[in-house]
User: Fold this.
Amino acid sequence: MPKPNKTKVRRRSRGQVFVKTLLILLATFVMAVAAFVVLFTAVIELTPFDAAKLEQITNARPTVVYARDGSPFLTITGPNGTYLPYEKIPKVLQDAIVATEDHNFWDSSSIDLRGLFRAAFVDLWTGRLAQGGSTIQEQLAKIVYLNDQKTFSRKLKQIILGVQINRYFTKQEILAMYLNHVFLGENCIGVEQAAMRYFGIDLAKNPNALTLTQAALLAGLPQAPSAYDPILHPAAALKRRNEVLENMAKYGYITEAQAKAAEKQGLGLSPHVLANAWDQQPLFTQFLLDYAERNGISSESILQGGLKVYTTVDPAVQNAINRVFWDDAYPNDFPPPIHGHQVQGAAVFIDPKTGGILGAAGSTRDGWTPGGYDRVYAYSSPGSSIKPILEYAPAIESGKFTPNSILNNKSHDFGGGYIPRNEPGEPPTATLHDALVHSYNVASVWLLQQIGIQTGVDFAERMGLQFTAGDRQHLGIAIGGMEKGVYPLQMAQAYSAFANGGVMEPAHLITKIVNDQGQVIYQFQGTPKRVMSVHTAAVMTSIMEDVVREGTGVMAQIPGWPVAGKTGTVQFDSALTGPHPDWVRNVWFDGYTPNLVGSVYLGYDQRDDAYHLNWYPYPGNYVASIWRDIARQVLAGQTPQQYSFMSAATGSGSGSVSRAPVANLAAKWDANIGGVDLTWRSPMNGQVNFQVSRATIALPNTGTAPGAAPGDTSAASGLGTSGEGTVAGGGMGLGDLGASAGNTSSAGGTGTGSGGPAATSGAFDATPQIIGVTSQEMYQDVDVLPGATYLYSVQAIDPSTGDTVGDPATIQFQVPGMPAPSTSAGTGGTNPNAGTAPGAGTNPNAGTAPGAGMNSNAGTTPGAGTNPNAGASPGTATPGMGPAGTGTSPSGAFPGTTAAPSGTGPGTGTQPGSGAQPVGGTQPVGGTQPGSGAQPGGGTQPVGGTQPGGGTQPGTGTQPVGGAQPGGGAQPGGGTQPGTGTAPSASASSNGTSPGSGWGGSAP
Assistant:
């Protein structure tokens, strides 16, 4: 068989395949590049470019920051609002910037392809946009036209804008615009600010003052202004500066020798504080820029100008913070320095209903530097201030615990050798309420153990706190033992949920930003979140009010306002403190009212235990006082409110309810004291005083002052003008009306007062006068005229400052009129009961019915016995057992120290005043009944006869005691001052037969 033909197949070599493939790829690449160039060119031509916007930046445009009410609060501009022209920019600085940022700048291209491809490779390899690769034109485009977000689309826009900038402007113009607006750290925009900040050099006035090393330092900052900050990080700044010097030598701007010589020099800093916002609001400006950076807003864009930044800041709150943290207006709120270092701190306040940040401070003045450390964001252990968030609120929320639940407070091993300790003397068990109020550590750890660490952590995380994996492994977090800790803004936001009925509004400062084209380039969007029930918020608020009322937070009290909160104290590790267990690292107070939440932190930046607070006096007092002094300024003049959710939680209603500091003011006549009783109620949370004022609305038309009838008076009392006197019986009035007050005294106590005006018809001063100050919810005004009408006002007063709290309460009251005096006369007595003011003991101590005790065991008809007119010693009943009545006004027109003549032989009746009923009835016998008794008129020892107030047979008249013809004894009513009357008889003569005819004379 013939063999089949075999065709040879020529195989292509691998080399040929490779070459062909390479040619195809190359051709594809060339076509792709060509297509890209065409497309890119088209995009550049079609992309709108606003050259005018770039031209405008040569004029200083401020950024205006607005307060929550829409009013301008802060203006941020450059120093003197100047723009440094190209010819005033030092050549050495231009060279340093170009050598470092874009050494091809002076070439025609505006795209650094080599740098761009390098950046693209790194970005794709790492999966993130980290590399720069930008020309100076592109960096300028980012500053003026774009935000700081790192996205591929933004990078493409930046390249396109860079090309367009290069087409519209000269290189000199581009470089000048860049150097005037590049961010160089320490909140410096442009080289002019940076030269002033770091070296104190004013380039506008002296552009040639900048040295090679100084220019190199500035040129090294744009890449990483914070990392190379020469004030905060001098070593890193020095290394970066030397790199710039090497670049300058590499690209021929300086020689190698110059570079080496310059590298041997130091930084040569001379820091200066910049003007503008740092002068207006240094603490707020610092916080504003930090907040912006942490919320995706470039602080550079704010500082570069041309923006309208709308915020939630309340000028009243921020200025109150400034006075405490910056102006040193409250020096006692801060402990003294240690080793020359002032303790540092932070404060931030929030509106709980909106989450708006009202004001903040990240340091005291002593530790402040522009762009420096902002402690509002500084992590630290919260101490016991975390207890309400981590264990107590979750326990209440679980439904398994109430404020009355019993917690184990006995120190023991909780596992792994962890044995928390209490302060000496603390009880082995405590209610949940008391454990939080008094901040018992062991009980708190035990409570977290009962609810579970995970339950507590989950609850706290809902409130915005963060925990590490290590935190979740140990019970020490119950009392603040966290690895990373918390910062003040977190704590303020968390506590705002308690103040807002369990709903947490996201804390925020900037609501929106509008550029100079009117475009909104930033808008805050937050969603409120319920983190606990209304019931839990109400219970926790009630307990934390007691923390302030009686627990560790008493220094935070604000009169009239319900304040709730918790202190936190962080001690050094026992291994560090050694013999100093009372050394404290830092302290907190987190507190709130219905409309204000604040977190205050104090502590040293130094970690060395040599920098510490002392346990005594209690360190929490400092932060609580700072919180109080800020909040008190903010709330001054506002009507105190209560938490709307407290009533809603119990089903009694809802809505914000104003709490008047003085409520239910009432006035009534008190016959026992002869004055007006004022009473009221106050829902005050803290200590508060009440200032009582009185205005005279109308006087009785009597023609003369009561008690001013002529009579035989002693020099001690006198008539007419008002004077100073001692009020008998501990009365609370301000002296007598119509006549000068004599220097009388009483067994019941003394009180100084001034006499009032005579009660003349139609002439009086209606101006309100302060008549007293008291801490009680009552006041007694005994300095009144019968028949007069008064307008009383009660105003709450802060006892520490004297400031008024809320509005006063007022009430009008008319004093009862005075009855006509009795003219009935007795028959005995050589010279009985004479004088304008009949009958007053040396210490009269007389009430409305003198001689009647406060609980006098008086009968309905005093002095009227079963056989009132019988027997040698009628009426053997014992006089009133109560103490003698207190004199309303023992001097002046009322019974004073009248030296009434005595009878020939003052009565010596066995038991003056007859009847089975004891002395001092409902209407004590007076007037016509001659005064008598063991101690007539309530005096310690009435002036006069051996046994005043009695006759041989007192009370033997036809009528029983108190009748129309009283007392027919041989010497009735012969005491020197027997019987006193509230309004003594205006007899026509100082000597008469009428014994003691005053209204309500001394009881028999």
About this structure: The chain is about 25% helix and 15% strand. The first strand starts at residue 63 and ends at 66. The two ends are 171 Å apart (CA to CA). Residues 118-132, 651-658, 702-763, 820-1004 have pLDDT under 50 and may be disordered.
